[in-house]
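Troubleshooting: if your tokenizer reports a length mismatch, compare against these two reference records.
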Amino acid sequence: MKIAVTAEQNQGLESQVAHHFGHAPYFILVDVQEGEILSIQGIANPYANAHQPGQIPQFIAQLQANVILSGGMGSRAIEFFEQYGIHPATGADGTVREAIEKFLGGKLKEAEACSHHEDHG
């Protein structure tokens, strides 16, 4: 399973999770198999400063991620991710490592739209 995590820095598992996926400077891609991390890759978000609805979910789909973890995201973005077969989970915080551990432990909630970011995608 390939997990994309929104990040403030490109520091691998020690990066801080970005609170809103659309403005995250980076995505940390973590390939996990049977609970074990196989690889870690930092990718700059080409749409961090400006994006149209659906561009970031399409970008994440091209990276072949199965899951996106973030602090939060709008309802339209959630719909786009689901159309691509990507499972969005929100409520992530702390480091990328902590977010991955919470997700694998079933402690991150299903994606819920941010009340103040309804139109972002």
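Reference record two:
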Amino acid sequence: MGLSDALVWALAIFAYFFLGAYHQLGTQVIIMIILALSLDLAIGYSGIESLGHAVFFGIGAYAAALFALNVLSEPLTGLVVGGLAAGAFGFVTGLLVLRVRGLTQVILTIAIGAVVLQVATTWKSVTGGDDGLAGYQVAPILGRYSFDLYGHTAYLYSLCVLAFVFALARILVNSPFGYVLRGIRDNDQRMRMLGVPVAARLLLIYSISAAIAGVAGAISAQVTGLVATDSLSFLLSGNVLIMLLIGGMGRLTGAFIGGIIFVIFSDRAAAIDPFNWLFMLGGLLILAVRFTPQGVGPWIDRMGGYLLDRRRKP
């Protein structure tokens, strides 16, 4: 575990005691971290180029909300339903998306997201259309812990889910399967020559990535009590990619660092100047790409190693 790994987990745990009135913002940070983790599995570890990952987030959110509205309001079951719905959609669309590479693949992911967004907007009887889907109740977690107005329960709930997802992702990327994915990312033709079923491996990780994004969407639906069509938007897909660029791709804690910086910076910038905050965000991205092209995570590890070396010297 590098210095950046230790820092982000310590920050996530201790933040609960110091956030005060900002637990809802902290919950939003955690949700975006889970979504960024899912995208990193696809892009950073597998080389799947996607600019439509928000579609899985939105499908997970709608699935969890509809499940709570029509079937069962128990949140953990809704979480599983959201993940399974998004994972199944990822499997089906992956059969098409993974047949191509490069720019064509990017355009396909955008197109699929646009189609699903249009369906959600027009199918008002199910999704609520532009008004969003609301009016559903979520039961207390394990029958005891209700979602309170200030977001204390939501923060701990989402943090526990993040810990589970992170542990699963770490096991995955450090397994033989994870090393095969890196090989496919670096040279898929060579992996084919070695007898690796490249298409099947990519389809599996794409489905897993979609399922994790769906879990993030399900949490969002449960803690906010509303699912809007912007949960499927291209803007959200772009924002998550920016988080990875800031934090660093191909390293799980990059999603943590990028998510924390992006969400908090966006919130503060919008509070300072509601009309021009996007200029500030653009400036942040330019600085990040210019001075930390591999992301902030590796830079933190290098600085930590440098400071430790200096302390060890007599």
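Descriptive notes for reference record two:
- Residues 122 and 129 are 6 Å apart (CA to CA).
- The chain has 14 helices and no strands.
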